[in-house]
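Checklist before submission:
- one chain only
- standard amino acids only
- sequence pasted in full

Submission:
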Amino acid sequence: MTESMPTSDDLMLQMSPWDFDQTLNGGWRIYEDSDPLRAAQLIQKYIVQNRERILNPKEGEREIELRVMYFHIGQNLLFAGQEHYLEAIGALKQSFEEGHECWNAYVSATIGFLENDIQRIDGAINTIEQSQEYKEDSRSGNLHIVKNFKKALKSGEYDYKEVYLKKEIKQVGDYVSVNEQGYLVNNLKLESIQEKWKPVVEDVINEFKKHFGDKLIAVYVRGSVAAGRAVDGISDVDDTAIVDLPEDQIDVSWRQDFHKAMKEKYPFVYALEGNVDSFDSIKKSANHGLFLKTQSLRVYGQDLASELPEFELGRNTVAHAFSIKKNIDAAQQFILEQKDNPERIKRRCTVIMKRIVRSGFELVMERSHKYTRDLYLCWQEFSKYYPEKSDIMKKVMELGIYPTSDVSEIQEVLGDLGPWLDEEVKKVFPK
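Returned file contents:
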């Protein structure tokens, strides 16, 4: 008798515990959107067949704790619908583990939500806020989710999936100063960088020194890190290194490995982005010059920003709007080509959505006599002048901060707002 070929589920049951649980678009996660009940059942089966391997990983295998897998069973059951809540609570109770204070509080709050127990959620909030773990890493305990559970119960919402997926948009940011002559003024200071992020910046500087030596002229950072408002798990490190080399001699092949190593060393950093350019190249690029002059903080080397011209609020400070149609078209094509690569889709989602929000603000910046790149403020100012587009732009902002790999969701948003935005740019900035 010919032995039957293994099914895809059979193959997944042979994966290492870490790969089975943590691989995006692999292991049980291939079912998390389309069939969460099947995902839960697959994890249960994996635990039964591989419990010993989970508890005692093979040499060279990364460890994934059993409590995490039980939580994922419970969460998938919750995503499958309210008829599975009771079974989900049973799985969640198996994910408690001694010595994990914030985690246990988060699990307890989840059960509290399912059992309509606000007092239990309050206890979890207090435990998380008072824990040393939370004070060192504000992502510990998923406090914003726990607080969403409490708000939901108070307002009569009981659908776990809806409440869990609610996005936390922090109302943070600031405007770049504009002087009496209408020029942007850079007020960033080195001491503003948060203590937690200073070693990250130092490592970036040292890496540039390592690769460029005495050809490294200066290093700048911009964005929330430079402003001292970096948020764990959300903020990028946006850097610019200026080197004394011709463009064709600038080697950045090392950056991908460096970024990967930095992500492992500093997991609170969402991503590292940036450029390595000659100063001549920056002077020729309106956008690069704008960012360096008005929104970047020198963290090493010579003060080159002072050699750049002043930037007046107006056409010279438009960084995205003039190319937004081209950017949207390219993003739509990219996500279709990368439909089997969810991480690349999410990264492109982040980029294009942020550009759209900032383009929206560029439509109104002269009217408001303000300048910013902070997303919440961009959306807020845009909404004052285009209230009928406020909701869709808020959705764009959310996707810029919490990206999705759902191609249809991205395409729907781009299709709704893209054509209007292109026409409005032409009206506000006629040639």
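Reviewer check: The first strand starts at residue 177 and ends at 178.
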